[in-house]
Amino acid sequence: MKDRRETVSVPEGVDLDHPNAARVYDYFLGGTANWAIDRMLGDQLSAVVPIIRTGARVNREFLGRAVRYCLRQGITQFLDLGSGVPTVGNVHEVADAVDPDSRCVYVDREPVAVAHARVLIEDDGDPERHVVLHEDLRNVNEVWKRAVATGVLDPSRPVGLLMVSVLHFLDPQEQVSEVVAQYRSFLPSGSHLIISHATFDAVPEQERQQFQQAVELYHHSGNPAFPRPREVIADYFGDFPLVEPGLVWLPEWHVEDGPAKTSALLAGRPAACCFLGGIGVKP
Ligand SMILES: C[S@@+](CC[C@H](N)C(=O)[O-])C[C@H]1O[C@@H](n2cnc3c(N)ncnc32)[C@H](O)[C@@H]1O
Fold first, then answer.
1. If you measure from the C-alpha of residue 170 to the centroid of ligand 1, how many angstroms do you get, rounded to a whole number?
2. I need a labelling partner for 257 at 20 to 30 A (CA). Which of 27, 57, 246, 249 fits?
């Protein structure tokens, strides 16, 4: 496997003086699109919250299971918002393994994530079916217009819309509910909305305290995160009925379908991952 850092020079606009959540997450997943400043924050976070790496991997496994679930329902095109650095198990890899004609538009606001995603698509993807957009997901009209304009997404057919481990990076004042509602309104009937989101609700006390410290570290590093109550996360699905088993701890969501190697480590105490997730279907 090629070291992606050898193939991507530091892209324009990348701030290497401050850590970045996308690159820290890549570090947790064992990727290569991270720098010393990111690894320093990653190590600080791991020291405070030993389970944080596991949490990142549990999240990535949920993403894989969710994409495969969608494919089983006949969804073959995906819009991945806050896609991150495409390390192992990204959406188009998972989808292509099931349906070689599947399509994916990636969107991220972080230049390193975008640059690495583009290299990956050049190396392993198909430009006719895989596109990476550098955009802030809060610019809903622009994101949707550009995603459709790529020709990769057909807006008349159901879409798998992923908002996986990203909405908690949006400030509450930025009206997250309105942003998600606008995406829901654009989706054609039968589309699947996939969300995972950090929460403190019902998390065991030890992990809750640790995660509180991690949130503070994120704040100080310039990457604020906002875990939210279960009912707020549930509201993001609007009137989309949730597929079984509903909005649950990630290690409880269709683990039988895999990948779920890391999730299995939390089988006895799934709430320790601090992440809820689910899929809603547009009526
Ligand atoms: C924790 S990573 C999640 C990556 C991937 N979705 C996953 O679950 O494996 C969060 C990603 O969201 C991106 N992000 C945060 N806020 C964003 C925004 N407003 N618009 C687009 N991307 C954003 C970050 O740059 C980062 O790459």
1. 10
2. 27
